[in-house]
Queue: 2 jobs
Job 1
Amino acid sequence: MSFMRVLQHSKILRVLSRFYVCLCEKSEIIHRCIRFLIINTIASHYVRDPHAYWKRKGKVYYNEEKTTVLDKLRRQNLFFAKNIKRLNPRVLCEVGCGYGRLLKANALVVSSEIVGVDFSLPQLLNAKKYVGSNNVHFVLATAKALPFRNNRFDVTYTCACIMYIPPNEYLPSINEIIRVTRRFVVHDEDLEMSRHYFGYNVMNTYRKMGHKIISCTPTLDAHGCRKFVIARLDKGEQMNMVENPTDSRISDTLG
Ligand SMILES: C[S@@+](CC[C@H](N)C(=O)[O-])C[C@H]1O[C@@H](n2cnc3c(N)ncnc32)[C@H](O)[C@@H]1O
């Protein structure tokens, strides 16, 4: 696009945004309607292809977070690391690790082997740079099909990942996380549905499956329905399951 074209477009955008601001000032209802339309368009676009969304978003996600919510994230990292340390894992996994801020925080307090899983390659490439620890391996995979043997991890956690998973993949993903985990699952997720993403009552899901909730607290700095949940897995006989030889290795898919 030529420079003149860009200028023309930006002029049109400026006029449109002024018009929008005028409308919003005139009527709160118009403002709400427009917001509702915009948010729903974004949401339906997301639902059509979450993977494509995160592949795109993964390229800018780290920079956006760095410049907007750094303080909040620092506090959340410390909170997470403190809680994960208490669970004393030998092998730890984060599903939906993004650019790896929590992996990095946890790697400072536990000496365990740590695995970060995400289905967005750009996020994982950023994570590999950002985390910079030999203890941490990265695996490109989706939550509903984790390439690990049963009970591979002592603790698996997610933070703001499950709430982005569409309803038809929610239970398959939770079941996969339970399958690969031996002792504790930790979630920091929205429990309620909101306009931006899906919300699930993960606490109820674990309870219904017969696992014990050992902690459920409001998440630091977040709005009311976001909770930090720790479930202790009661796997009974499953704890002695024979390992599946086909998926018994953690691979660093990024080489
Ligand atoms: C909001 S970011 C949170 C990243 C990180 N947990 C944190 O708190 O900084 C959500 C991440 O979950 C990943 N994700 C979403 N759905 C996923 C799925 N079904 N399988 C694997 N990763 C997923 C996205 O690619 C993205 O990196």
Job 2
Amino acid sequence: MEIVIKRINYKTALILKNAYKAEGLKLRDFIGMSWLGAYDNTTLIGVVAYRRTKKGIVFKSDIVLKEYRGMGVYRKLFTERLKRIKKIKGTGSKRMYAYCTQSSLSLFLEYGFVKKRTVRRYTYVEYNNIK
Ligand SMILES: CC(C)(COP(=O)(O)OP(=O)(O)OC[C@H]1O[C@@H](n2cnc3c(N)ncnc32)[C@H](O)[C@@H]1OP(=O)(O)O)[C@@H](O)C(=O)NCCC(=O)NCCS
């Protein structure tokens, strides 16, 4: 299986609306949100997003379709997102952060995010001093 990561828009991400719903996650658009999609051929199988806020760059809306999990799709989306964020010039921001679930937490920690607190079923993680 060859996975291709592409820039997509919110309307395209909406294809996975039911998958978000099934996980109890909300899919919402925000001004300035960037979306990345993982494709298996022409099928959208995963999405991640990020946007700039006053606090830094927030990671949002991460999902991979159930039947494609455990194959490294999220890792691909995650590293592509990091690569693109590091390329943003003059954001004035040095921090990335996320409210992540139990299944995504280990990847955030692997990439140097630090656990700060737990809010209901989410763990707040932060990465400071983006280089
Ligand atoms: C979290 C999620 C996106 C992971 O997708 P995935 O494509 O299966 O993940 P990958 O196969 O790329 O795995 C990458 C790493 O994440 C970790 N991981 C993946 N699934 C995990 C799970 N269920 N529990 C704990 N860690 C997990 C592993 O460390 C894995 O690395 P390894 O396989 O090299 O050991 C997917 O399980 C999902 O969509 N979950 C529901 C929605 C969700 O929780 N989103 C996160 C919101 S912040």
